[in-house]
Amino acid sequence: MSRRATAALLLLTGLTCTPAQAETAADCAAFWRGVAAEQRALPGLGVAPDEAETLAAAFEALPEAGPVATDRIAGYRLLYRGLIAGDRQSTDLFSRIAERCDALLPRP
Predict the structure, then answer these.
(1) Where are the domains of the chain?
(2) Greatest CA span in the chain, whole angstroms?
(3) pTM
(4) pLDDT score, position 71
């Protein structure tokens, strides 16, 4: 199942997260909001922000997620730019964050 399908399933089922995951879910929403914003800002990449926006919405929809960590979006945009530029540290950090976020989504 693709991330988009998993995110849609999460939205439809209304699954909850634990209080310990609430901050992480809000951070994951900010992470994917930052990626989507950067993808919109750089249309030459040829990557539509649709999947990132769907993932952000899935994390925002978690009942215990709380508000998006909007203060972190700019940093995640910068991280994504580093990934695009091929910076190894940015790429590694991006992968670790994405994996942590993926772990919050239900498995098919």
Answers:
(1) 3-12+30-102
(2) 39
(3) 0.76
(4) 86
